[in-house]
Amino acid sequence: MERSLTFREERPQMIGHSESTGKESVLSSDSVRRVTQYQAAGINARLKLFALLEAQGVPAAEADDLVAALEAGAVAGAQCEVVELDGTAPASSDPVFADGWDEGVMAVSKALVGIADRDWSRRGGRSAGAAELAVHLTDVR
Fold first, then answer.
1. I need a surface site. Which of 15, 38, 101, 112 has the fewest CB within 10 A?
2. Could you tell me the pTM of the whole model?
């Protein structure tokens, strides 16, 4: 199985919420660029992890379980941060905005739980193994 594929990436800058709070309804080009960088870094990390585990004699199924657990854990960590946003609408906003804010937080939290569930359930099937990642890289290019 070919594991030397790498996806061209720039090292992402770990920065906080620097997005505009204006009337933008879509991600800014900066957000899209950063997400793309994180995706590339994640793919490269998974490929490297699979290669390291394989070099140490870890069976492919066990490597898949470990990667799926890591992915689910990362999403669960993001979900914990999102949940903390509940009730944090700007104090100057009217109650309707605050209600919408909290409903949005809950919707995002629910979506993240679904993503973590999906990643975790891949343990019963397979995580995105190196061969699948290679196919994904081809599709992206």
1. 15
2. 0.63
